[in-house]
Amino acid sequence: METSPLVLLHAFPVDSRMWDGVRERLDPITPDQRAGGEPDLAGAARRVLAELDGRGIGRVVLGGCSMGGYVAMALLRIAPERVAGLVLVDTKAVADVEEARDKRLAVAREVDEHGVGAVVGSVSGLLAPGSPLVDEVRAVVLGQRAEDVAWAQRAMAARPDSTALLREADVPKLVVVGEHDAVTPPERARALAGEIGATCVELAGVGHLSPWEAPGAFADAVLDWRRATGV
User: Hey, which of 3, 114, 149, 221 has its CA 20 to 30 A from 138?
Assistant: First the structure.
């Protein structure tokens, strides 16, 4: 049975290199998220759609890690007919509370003034304790453009709650979370999966960037789910 192409959207504040470990097995399309226009994740979603249109691709299985999950939700909101299945990785459906929005906007201002070095200190919190990937991830973060990082923070701060959107989406859904994810922990992932009717898989020994830390286990989870659901 023919299945839809897989699109995977990266986390903040990195880029599509986070998916390098799963490329051979999953063959994903992995757009990079860049600043463009007003800071609104719908704009990022439209740029993903434009890339798919340019490739002549219609429906896809759409996945995203952290911020990538937010962009996936934005795409689902504006073009649900393009989504055959959802893979939500170390992410959440709710909007930021006021304190979290204020923190994002403060970080964006700091990046505007001082560059991406302002967010490098957060890298260790995105990984499992003692992860050997800290230096690698830090180098990728330092390679980002300041305008992209600041734009992304402002866009995430403005995102709406997507819980009802996900609940009503009549497509197979997979929620994946790292055992040591301190940003969107496993109990939150299990609650989200229960609320939206998704399969939930916890990856052992990894943090918020679980596909980067455990690409083999992540690929297994996605392939098993695709076989089970036929998407």
Answer: 221
